[in-house]
Amino acid sequence: MNTVLNIAHRGASAYCPENTMAAFKRGLELGATAIETDAQMTSDGHLVLIHDEWLTRTTGLNKLVKDVTLEELRRLDAGSWFDPAFAGEKVPTLAELLELAKSAGIQVNVELKNGIVLYPRIEEAVIEEIRRHGMADRVILSSFNHYSLAKCKQLAPDIRTGILYMEGLYEPWEYASRIQAEALHAYHYAVLPEWVAQAAERGVVYHPFTVNEPAEMRRLLKAGVAGIITDYPDRLGELLKEGED
Ligand code: G3P
Ligand code: MG
Question: What is the signed CA dihedral for 147, 224, 34, 142, rounded to 10 degrees?
């Protein structure tokens, strides 16, 4: 069996409104073996899954996630912006996704959104939720805020971390070793086969994002990446099956 992770970006976000239970479930149906999602906190400290700091684009409410309570947030429609067929989809909690992933036997990549808005103690809260669900061995924490990742590793050395970055970092596997990250979540153009090999020597794997074109998926699979983050888990699933034949 192919062990390359098929990571559905915000769920199967090409087909369903991103970061909703509909998108996560569709991801599973389309063959994803992991779900990537974005975690933020409400004003009353609940962990919720939404990409933008502002609620405007996906719910129409012109407020920041950090300024609404969970109750207010749950009244919003996070599906209609994508297609009226998804009217009534809610902004999910991290707990809901962890329950789904646990019962389906898949992994979760929780991206801590801790940049534009800073959420003090989001690391503690996310780790506590993961432990409550017994999912420490099935979660990869990632973030563009590498201080957050270093803190996660100090708090929970047993939970894997992945460094998110866009640029051509110089020898990122050295940097990863420094904060004990197991994975490089690199923008996909910043991944060359020789780098994948050098990272592997350090025990560091690549999970590039966000890869939607089959030709680019093929290039990365050939380079030896350990997983790919995609809006189209069905396309990646097809390629992974081919590799088994
Ligand atoms: O985790 C990969 C990817 O989600 C990072 O960027 O902006 O889509 O959260 P973004
Ligand atoms: Mg993300």
Answer: 0
Distance 245 CA to ligand 2 centre (A): 32
Tokens standing for 59? Answer: 């719910």
Q: What is d(CA 126, CA 152) in angstroms, rounded to the nearest whole number?
A: 9
Number of CB atoms found within 10 A of residue 66's CB: 13
Ligand 1 within 6 A of 51 CB?
A: yes
CA–CA distance, 27 with 13 (Å, rounded to integer): 8
- Residue with the smallest CA separation from ligand 1 atom 4 is 9
Which tens digits make up the pLDDT trace of 71-103? 999 999 999 999 999 999 999 999 999 999 999
Ligand 1 atom with the shortest distance to the CA of 113: 9
Round to whole Å and give the CA distance between 203 and 182. Answer: 7
Domains in the chain, ordered, with CATH?
Answer: 5-244 (3.20.20.190)
Residue type, 68: V
Please answer whether residues 212 and 14 qualify as being in contact, where contact means their C-beta atoms are separated by less than 8 angstroms. yes
State whether ipTM is beyond 0.95. Answer: yes
Question: Tokens 């800073």, residue?
Answer: 118
From the number of C-beta atoms within 10 Å of its C-beta (0-12, 13-18, 19+), residue 120 rates as exposed
